[in-house]
Amino acid sequence: MAEFPNAIKAFTDVVDNVDDVLATHLNQAYDEIEAIETQMITYDTGWIPTTDSWSPTSDGTITIPAGGLNIYSIGDEIRYYKNGSSDLSYGYVAAIADTLLTPYAGSDYSVSSSDTLTEVAYSKGRGVGHPIWFNTTTPTLSVALYDNGSGGQPTISKSKACLVGRTCYYKLLSSGVKAGTDNLLIRFTVAGIIPTPLNTEVAGNFYAYSAGYYVGVCLYSGGDIISIGSANIADNAVMTNGSIALVYEI
Questions:
Q1: Which of 42, 86, 91, 156 has most Cβ atoms within 10 angstroms of its Cβ?
Q2: What is the pTM of this model?
Q3: Is 197 helix (H, G, I), strand (E, B) or coil?
């Protein structure tokens, strides 16, 4: 069995006319060469395998060996097999500490303390097979501003996020009915939906249509994303399109 990539093989020198060259000597060298070739092929896909043990916790984070800050960065792509599945799970590194990694994969993939992760690999970008966008958990919008016409949640047809380095991109598409007369429409709490913004500097566009176009911006305040239009929207106006697009640092 090859010692690479866990260690560098220490070969014993063979002396001419003193030592017999046995099949074992050649086979050991061949094993190491094959292990290196296999690793190189993996690198061609953008993925870097790790033999570190990743242990999910009850809060969805992953315990890793000490030194994680020297290996992983926010925005890295990750993949692994979970509980013996033949299907890969994917995600992004949303936060990293010395011995703790916080993954983000929206609602498409998740981990729990009972999960076993195998064949873990990470990529610094463009890992073959890694999704660009992840569906998020459906956000709960403030029905004081926007509902389905009878006090319930408006319809959300799209809620997706992706990371590029420390930058998060998010888009939401919805339809419903305006509640009250003002220039506010979409408001939801970030926690559990998308990675938390590093600060209040969120670049966001707001667009809505109801027998006319409404445009505006978005801001992050008190843990919430809030859309602010350029004009008031009438109470009970049917919104056939209420969308936001965010770009921010995590």
A1: 91
A2: 0.82
A3: coil
